[in-house]
Write a structure and sequence with these properties.
The structure holds 2 protein chains of 2 kinds. In chain A, the strands form 3 sheets. In chain A, strands 2, 5, 6, 10, 11 and 12 form a 6-stranded mixed beta sheet that branches. In chain A, strands 3-9-8-7 form a 4-stranded antiparallel beta sheet, with no helix packed on it. Chain A has no helices and 12 strands. Helix content of chain A is about 0%, strand content about 50%. Chain A is mainly beta. Chain B is mostly beta strands. Chain B is globular and about 40 Å long. The interface between A and B is medium-sized, with 25 and 27 residues.
Chain lengths: ~110, ~120
């Protein structure tokens, strides 16, 4: 079946540090890949997405590239801010077996200190 | 407008109460979802409605009863809940169709506490 494996953390960084959150997946067919962010006390927000191999999603300084050869979709940001403190979820949606389902990784809590 | 709204924001209910959660979207999305999220866990899918019809029920106990009265509204009726049902309940919506690229838009959630 489809699955997502991501770094679980928690991770604490200083402001302006470089961030990488690893995400790998297992899926049939050609899934679409997503990063969602959940700020404290809120719902999930779509951060970025990529729908085919070698696509790069980007938003708010975050980037992730769909790597089919390594089945990965790692999230990166060059300089984190205190406001980036949140839980980050990697997710996939596969066209096979019912595309309604979004399969999530376990999430990674990031804390950024000033 | 890419907003999904949910009411109430917080709900405390006893095990014998009946209450309802409400979700609304005006993006023309024809797929709507209910998720349950426990602390420090990813959301777990409960129900999916597609074109106002229930298409997926992830073996959810019958004390949770979903309803989709029209294409913009989704309700979750609660009855005889257990304390372990305390969680954040998230609603989401997306376009409906073959492409799996359609992202889901989430509401802010209802924080439910069962006493």
């Amino acid at each position: 079946g489809n699955s997502v494996t991501q770094m679980e953390g928690p991770v604490t960084l200083s402001e302006e540090a470089f961030l990488t959150i690893n995400c790998t997946y297992t899926a049939t067919g050609y899934p679409s890949l997503f990063w969602y962010v959940q700020y404290p006390g809120e719902g999930l927000q779509l951060l970025l997405k990529a729908t085919k191999a070698d696509d790069k999603g980007s938003n708010k300084g975050f980037e992730a590239t769909y790597r089919k050869e390594t089945t990965s979709f790692h999230l990166e940001k060059g300089s984190v801010q205190v406001s980036d403190s949140a839980v980050y979820f990697c997710a996939l949606r596969s066209p096979e077996g019912g595309s309604e389902k979004l399969v999530f990784g376990k999430g990674m809590k990031l804390t950024v200190n000033p | 407008d890419t907003e999904v709204t949910q009411t109430p924001k917080h709900l405390v209910m006893g095990m014998t109460n009946k209450k309802s959660l409400k979700c609304e979207q005006h993006m023309g999305h024809r797929a709507m979802y209910w998720y349950k999220q426990k602390a420090k866990k990813p959301p777990e899918l409960m129900f999916v409605y597609s074109y106002e019809k229930l298409s997926i029920n992830e073996s959810v106990p019958s004390r949770f009863s979903p309803e989709c009265p029209n294409s913009s509204l989704l309700n979750l009726h609660l009855h005889a809940l257990q304390p372990e049902d305390s969680a954040l309940y998230l609603c989401a919506s997306s376009q409906r169709g073959i492409p799996s690229s359609y992202e889901q838009y989430f509401g802010p959630g209802t924080r439910l506490t069962v006493t």
